[in-house]
Task: inverse folding
């Protein structure tokens, strides 16, 4: 059962073998080891914080590694292989539901909507959600935020994802795009830049945004163990200060300027694809403009998880969310 992944998956060899996939690190200052759940244009403000020197301005040396999946990211955090995780808030709830003695605390929100888009293989005629009824829909992993936000949206549109269509969700995240490209599914749920790449290649068309349809969520958040935060309050504050500076920079700059800043992290992706991906996320308000995770967003997350059958009990926002660092970062910037 997927809820047990983080409690029992402490494979030190796996954690230690994770390749460094970032461009940060190697400088002077207080070292902070950050694990991102995947490498994604969805996380543009994080790369801006590194490339524009916002972390260095705060006296931090951020060592970024890609931890490839929510389960591995949380394993790395709980086993102290990383100090801070960038991952979906649902993972902190799963840890809390297991009765963790050292819970994981959300302290800085990065993205505030789902980052996936609905792509249709057949682009003839005007799209309507009813087209999904009776179709083959290539979705995401059960229990993960993309799949839960997708199901939440389908239910809002009057579509039962269990009975009204054939839902495929047994394909590894890294293989979903290639499965669709090889002919699996009439519809697929994709992140950028893959959606833009497929559009450019004529393999389909983006017809809807799950981010727009599912509303504001604490979709991707910086989090750390309660014990780490307690011992490193000054570091966490400086980290959040840098995050807020980056968020403000992203909010006030064009998609082209943001793309140029983050291109070192996407060397195998064409610039025009990075630009179109950033533009799409900016236009739908995906990038949070401050690190505060508010109660309305949190309750929306709980509703999404509850509908998916992944919530044992509603966890009050103040239980595993600490907005004090985000609030101080905003005050300090005034």
Result:
């Amino acid at each position: 059962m997927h809820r047990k992944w983080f409690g029992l998956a402490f494979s030190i060899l796996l954690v230690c073998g994770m390749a460094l996939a970032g461009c940060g690190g190697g400088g002077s200052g207080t070292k902070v080891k950050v694990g991102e759940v995947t490498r994604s244009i969805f996380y543009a403000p994080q790369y801006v914080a590194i490339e524009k020197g916002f972390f260095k301005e705060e006296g931090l040396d951020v060592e970024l590694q890609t931890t490839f999946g929510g389960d591995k990211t949380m394993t790395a955090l709980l086993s102290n292989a990383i100090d801070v995780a960038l991952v979906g808030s649902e993972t902190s709830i799963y840890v809390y539901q297991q009765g963790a003695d050292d819970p994981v605390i959300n302290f800085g929100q990065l993205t505030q909507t789902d980052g996936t888009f609905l792509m249709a293989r057949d682009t003839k005629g005007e799209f309507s959600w009813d087209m999904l009824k009776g179709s083959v829909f290539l979705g995401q992993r059960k229990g993960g935020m993309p799949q839960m936000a997708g199901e939440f949206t389908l239910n809002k549109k009057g579509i039962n994802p269990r009975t009204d269509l054939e839902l495929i969700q047994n394909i590894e995240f890294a293989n979903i795009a290639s499965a669709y490209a090889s002919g699996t599914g009439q519809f697929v749920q994709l992140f950028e830049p893959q959606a833009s790449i497929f559009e450019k290649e004529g393999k389909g068309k983006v017809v809807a945004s799950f981010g727009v349809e599912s509303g504001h969520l604490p979709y991707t958040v910086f989090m750390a163990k309660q014990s780490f935060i307690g011992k490193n309050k000054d570091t966490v504050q400086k980290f959040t200060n840098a995050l807020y500076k980056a968020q403000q920079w992203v909010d006030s700059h064009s998609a082209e300027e943001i793309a140029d800043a983050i291109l070192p992290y996407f060397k195998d992706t064409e610039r025009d694809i990075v630009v179109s991906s950033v533009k799409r996320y900016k236009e739908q308000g995906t990038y949070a403009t401050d690190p505060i995770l508010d109660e309305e967003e949190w309750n929306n997350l709980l509703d999404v998880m509850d509908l998916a059958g992944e919530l044992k009990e509603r966890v009050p926002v103040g239980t595993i969310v600490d907005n004090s660092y985000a609030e101080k970062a905003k005050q300090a910037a005034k």
Summary: Residues 1-22 have pLDDT under 50 and may be disordered. The domain at 116-214 is CATH 3.40.190.10 (D-Maltodextrin-Binding Protein; domain 2). Strands lie at 30-36, 60-66, 84-87, 104-111, 116-120, 136-138, 166-168, 187-191, 205-209, 220-225. DSSP finds 17 helices and ten strands in the chain.
